[in-house]
Amino acid sequence: MKIIVQKFGGTSTRSIETREHMYKNIIREHDKGNKVVAVVSAMGRYDDPYATDTLLSIVHTDQLTDEEIDRLTSIGETISTLVVKSELAKKGYVVDTVTNGELGILTDSHHQNATITTVEGKHILDKLKNADIVICPGFQGYSQNGKITTLGRGGSDLSAVAIGVAIDANEVEIYSDVNGIYTADPRIVPDAMKLNYISYSEMLELSKNGAKVLNHRCVQLAAKHDIVIHARSSFDENQGTYVLGDEKIMKDHLNQFIISGITGSQNEARITLVGVDAKVNGAGELFEKIADANVNVNVFSQALVGGGRMDISLIINDKDVPAVVEVINDLKETLQAKKTIVRGNIGKVAVIGVGIKNNKGMFQKVYNTLMSHDINVEMTSCSEINISCYIDRDDVKRAQVLLHEAFLG
């Protein structure tokens, strides 16, 4: 039995017209003789009646616990499963649904952004014995104590891959309003090109560095279990982009470009501690406290400046600035910094591709392209497949255009 998992977001479920496109994709696989498990999101966006943000808007969220908010926000996906089943069944197909408890997605108790601990597909597989199509609610799971949990932003992508792992699906198709993964955001870079294939590692770097097509946690899970992801459009039948194992990409030379993508973000901030006492392990204690505050440090550098002092700089998400400043203030006596400089309005542009590690001069080309166009590079980070430059927020879009032209023009 060949099983295809298909995930459909709010742009697919929001109206009768958009759902008809969704049904064409489901029926196409059904007519090929495949079993289909469709993972659906809530219907639409604010202020569509059953969208997640609409549900949140009708309550006083500050009066609800996180567990109660998860119960509320999971309702939109449950409504979608029943609407989709009723409409497909009316067309004559044998369709079933699963409840939250039957999903088999067990999580921790971190409500609103739960982490999946285990998945099992018994209930879904049992239903597929009698039904050709099974509809599942996305974005949710349940904790050890049986409470509904939600998986955070992009959680339906993660749900789909988790279900694919649990039922040993042949492929997971992620549908959206774009027809694949591009070398850059076409809204920013008009000359961006669609990729036919991309490796897990490249897709993960793109997702973590600002690309919105796939949730990075779903890519991680797919890579761990070698599940093929097909990112494609709900509104046409053309092939999208396949996300595959790095080994297959390299073996079959599926990606025709040295660079797979250029992406950017505009939500960074830089904090510099000037003249920290270098004789104590202040940096170690600083990062321990930052981690305790659930803050990720994107880039870190330290430099001795003489006189037993050093400067420490770090790049973080701008929303985390208050938490990090609070940590720094708590460690004032330990660090003995002469001053703390907070620089907002930082952005990032990233050049990503497996070809970086095998081609010399890549960093030089990135750096010189930006600096020659009067874009100042404040900090950088590099790996085998990622060169990231931190620049002024207002320059991020222009930087993506310039780098795309330099590498892929």
From TrEMBL:
It catalyses: L-aspartate + ATP = 4-phospho-L-aspartate + ADP. The keyword Magnesium does not apply. Its EC number is 2.7.2.4. The keyword Cell cycle does not apply. PROSITE patterns: ACT. Signal peptide: none annotated. Keywords: Amino-acid biosynthesis, ATP-binding, Diaminopimelate biosynthesis, Kinase, Lysine biosynthesis, Nucleotide-binding, Transferase. Belongs to the aspartokinase family. This is Aspartokinase.
